[in-house]
Design brief:
This protein is of the alpha/beta class and 324 residues long. It contains 9 helices and 12 strands. The strands form 2 sheets. Strands 1, 2, 3, 4, 5, 6, 7, 8, 11 and 12 form a 10-stranded mixed sheet that branches.
């Protein structure tokens, strides 16, 4: 399917967050229930002439800062693009509630903005890549509104199913989802645990530096509308409807509040890793399920030896699917 893009845009400008070699462009996306909204596309050109590109979509309480990932793709001949979705990171406007969403399909126009930027640059072979909630959004996009330029889908610990057990899952999620229709701003607490954030942050036990106002170590509370948007998207995914090849990346285990820092340093501290595997295996007819041993929730932020395995898996998969 080919789309006629109707976005008004600014020009490419230096991306001060990433530094030399990175540029960004702001796309005006009109207005919604929060007022005027925009998204931001960031680009890092390939180290050699190429018409293929990666389009990366971040997860909840996140933004694009994974410089090593962009550099790795660029060194392997891929133009790298990322989107800071509306109300996230570079796209957050004064007075907006960060991360607010009522339907994940709102982000489809932000994905299209990334594709429009790539098309203008002559990139005509695209692999879409999404992390966590971004992986859920990308999966939904490839089911609902696939673009013929997208040849593959890489999912980094996608949020395809809730990591909530017992009555909280059986009753709490449906209740909050129902409330989301009539009382969208009712709060749902994520709890006070900062263990996953501390496993990433160079200020604590990790090796990464990022803006804590855009990516706080403690997951912020969500609201009923957010729960409803995620719940509807997860239920909307139908078996086998993603027609392009899929690489499904996830850790071999999960860590939970009360576990030790050492356990959080080698596990998914946000989602149920095995549930990701089960839910992702039915996304389409060609799903490669790759378990990242000792991987973090964002597998490309795992310790160096682990993420080396991740990148080998990615480029081997791209080559096997004639995409690399």
């Amino acid at each position: 399917m080919t789309h006629q893009n109707v976005f008004s845009t600014s020009r490419w400008m230096p991306d001060n967050e990433m530094g030399h070699g990175y540029e960004m462009m702001i796309f005006d996306q009109g207005e919604d229930y929060s007022g005027k909204v925009n998204c931001t596309v960031i680009r890092k050109p390939s180290h050699k002439a190429s018409t293929r590109g990666i389009l990366y979509i971040h997860g909840f309480s996140d933004y694009f800062f994974q410089k090593e990932m962009a550099e790795t793709f660029a060194k392997h001949g891929w133009n790298f693009y990322a989107v800071d979705l509306r109300r996230y990171g570079r796209s957050l406007r004064e007075g907006q509630r960060p991360f607010e969403v009522r339907d994940l399909r709102e982000y489809f126009d932000d994905i299209r903005a990334g594709l429009a930027a790539m098309e203008r640059d002559g990139v005509d072979e695209v692999v879409l890549m999404g992390h966590s909630t971004g992986g859920l959004t990308c999966s939904l996009y490839m089911q609902c509104d696939p673009d013929e330029r997208i040849k593959g889908l890489i999912l980094n610990s996608p949020f395809l199913t809730w990591n909530v057990q017992g009555l909280k899952g059986a009753l709490g999620i449906p209740l909050m989802s129902a409330l989301g229709r009539v009382a969208p701003h009712v709060k749902a607490s994520n709890g006070p645990d900062e263990s996953y954030g501390h496993s990433l942050s160079a200020e604590n036990r990790g090796e990464w530096t990022y803006r804590k106002d855009w990516k706080p170590d403690r997951l912020p509370d969500v609201d009923a509308a957010w729960v409803r948007a995620v719940d509807i998207a997860q239920k909307a995914l139908k078996d086998g409807q993603v027609k392009v090849p899929v690489l499904l990346l996830h850790s071999d285990k999960s860590a939970y509040p009360g576990d030790s820092p050492e356990e959080f340093a080698k596990a998914d501290g946000v989602l149920d890793a095995m549930a990701i595997s089960k839910a992702g295996s039915t996304l389409g007819p060609d799903v490669t399920d790759f378990t990242v041993y000792d991987g973090l929730h964002d597998v490309v932020l795992s310790r160096p030896d682990v993420r080396a395995v991740v990148y080998t898996a990615i480029f081997d998969w791209l080559a096997a699917r004639n995409l690399g």
